[in-house]
Amino acid sequence: MRLGVKLLLVAVAVVAAGVMIGFYVSNLTTLAGSPSYALPVSGSSAHPVVNLQIQTVAAVGPKLSQNPDWVSYLVKENGQWKRKTVWDLPAHATVHVTIFNFDGASALRNPFFARPQGMVGNRILVDGKPADHIDPNDASHTFAVPALGIILGIPGVADDAKNQCGYAPCPMSNAHRTIKFTFHTTTPGHFRWQCFVPCAAGWLDGFGGPMQTIGYMDGFLNVKA
Amino acid sequence: MATADPNAVAAPPGDSRNHGQRVVVAWLVLSAVATPLVAVFVGRLIPPGNHSEQSTGQVFDNTLMLAVITPVICLLAVFFFYGLRTFRTTSGALVDGPPLRNDARIQVLWIVITSTLVLFLAGFGTFELLQNGSGGGQGPNPIAVPGGSKFQVQVIGQQWQFTYRYPSLGGLESNQLYLPADTDVELHVTSLDVIHSFWAYELGVKADANPGVDNVLFVRTKGPGVFHVRCAELCGLWHGYMFNNGRVVDSGQFDAWASKQQKLYAAIKPFMDRPESDGGAPYSKTYFPAPDRRAG
Predict the structure, then answer these.
(1) Residue A202 C-alpha, separation from nearest chain B C-alpha, in angstroms
(2) Hey, which of A58, A198, B174, B200 would disulfide with B205, CB 3.0 to 4.6 Å?
(3) Least confident of A3-7, A200-204, B105-109
């Protein structure tokens, strides 16, 4: 084979590999298991406002995942609960978050995460009551965006509560806790969020499966200009 | 008995030039010029910086090692280029080279020089390591312990964030690492879950964070500044996002920061002081991944 042809083949192979790697990186979040969801924006363009409604469930169920027993976050999109954990938000926006937790308590490994911080007033509303902390023993999950300084523990449903949810999506008639808070997005960026409670049932020390897979207990906030 | 190659051309008449002497002279001249230049101008570019005594010591160590190997690199370069230029044949004919004979003096010289270099570097490295630990984790029973009082901070790795506990501040825990300037700091690195590695780059500090292990290291901070902290051990999904900035601040700023943190975390102090079996987290040297409900 002539030298020129060899060089051409090598160049083509390098370019093809580069394109494939670039494609993989640029679509990492999608390939990892969750399409993104652009939240509807209200308010003026100078002061955008977003309402984010999410729920945490002990088992995501067969309708929403091939792993029906996995614990998961869900987001409300057009009135439907979807398993999407990559959310597009505008920059410099006010984000009102409501979390409906249908899962039981499993306790925080580190009580440090019992102190809500990074949201407006460093306080959350738990079932309508303001709280500057939760009992670490009552925690079910956390919602944390470390790069934005946002950390909060989510109290769980009591073990003896009636009408507990089996599989998601869980209707509001099931026993649940409601947590509300508000935070502000900053400049555009790609911020990961995660749960700090090792809540993956059936995995070694609770760290595997849904804790290590985007689309369940982890995701991104895509803050866009 | 081997027969002579009928195509071989006779060796050229003896070369009267003393190649060995030429190479040595060229090597000495090049080394005399290059070594101080490398030590002065390249040494200052070597990381990790000048934020602590340990990082300054690491820059010195790396500069010295670079200066030591510069003559070695010079010898290789001189030998390579001298041979390329002097012994290159242009005729294309196959010519036997001069016969190579054993020279015990050169062999002994080579062994002595390389052995001396290696032993010197080993001794120098050991001496430097025993001075103050060089910013590395020494396990639960450190042998290179600086004298005097030390400010203790516990570094706790967890998927996927470092938090920091200050026993001298009533067990205060924060996700920010603030250190007082010009202070001997004793860091106790551990983990709640999997293996992490605490790497405070500009401080010249790095230590594995293992569950159940109290990995102790020492660092002497210098003036105020910002340093980067990141996890240096692949630890799961968000390993690449496990980083934050730390700060070395003067004593006034440190006290103000500590006071602010104590107010912020006052609400959870009862839980931090409570026994671990009751949902609390007393200041413990080590922790184990032992979730009590879900992950059994």
Answers:
(1) 6
(2) B200
(3) A200-204
Does the CB of B110 have a partner CB in chain A at under 8 Å? no
Domain residue ranges in chain A = 1-31, 36-224
Give the pLDDT band (50/70/90) at residue A34: confident
- A195–chain B Cβ distance below 8 A for any pair: no
Looking at residue B170, its pLDDT comes to 85
DSSP, collapsed to helix, strand or coil, labels residue A83 as coil
ipTM: 0.84
The encoded tokens of residue A14 equal: 């390098």
Q: What does the block give as tokens for A83?
A: 């398993």
Minimum Cα–Cα distance from A219: chain B residue: B238
Q: What does the alpha-carbon distance between residue A170 and residue A187 come to, in Å, rounded to a whole number?
A: 34
- Looking at residues B271-281, what average pLDDT do you find? 69
List the structure tokens of B279.
Answer: 């949902």
CB < 8 Å to B271, chain A: 111, 114, 133, 135-136
Of A21-30, A74-83, A162-171, B100-109, which has the strongest mean pLDDT?
A74-83
Alpha helices, DSSP H only, in chain B?
19-37, 53-86, 104-132, 251-264, 269-273
Give residue A107's pLDDT: 83
Q: Does A213 touch chain B (CB under 8 A)?
A: yes
Task: Give contacts of B 259-288 with A, CB under 8 A.
Answer: 264-265, 267-268, 271-272, 274, 278-281
Is 50 exceeded by the pLDDT of residue B2?
A: no
pLDDT > 70: percent of chain A: 96
Identity of residue A121:
G
Which two structure tokens, joined as six digits, stand for B124?
């120098």
Residue spans of the domains in chain B: they are 19-88+106-135, 151-278
- Among residues B168, B161, B192, B164, the alpha carbon closest in space to that of B177 is found at B164
Asked whether the beta carbons of residue A205 and residue B281 sit closer than 8 angstroms, the reply is: no
Determine, for residues A206 and B163 on separate chains, whether the beta-carbon distance falls below 8 Å. Answer: no
Q: How many helices (H) and strands (E) does chain A have?
A: 2, 14
Please tell me the pTM assigned to this model. Answer: 0.84
CA distances from B22 to B35, B78, B82 (A): 20, 10, 9
Q: How far is B287 from chain A (nearest CA, A)?
A: 10
Which architecture, in CATH terms, is B151-278? Sandwich (2.60)
**Is residue B228 within 8 Å of B201, Cβ to Cβ?**
yes
Q: Which fold has domain A36-224?
A: Immunoglobulin-like (2.60.40)
pLDDT of residue A3: 83
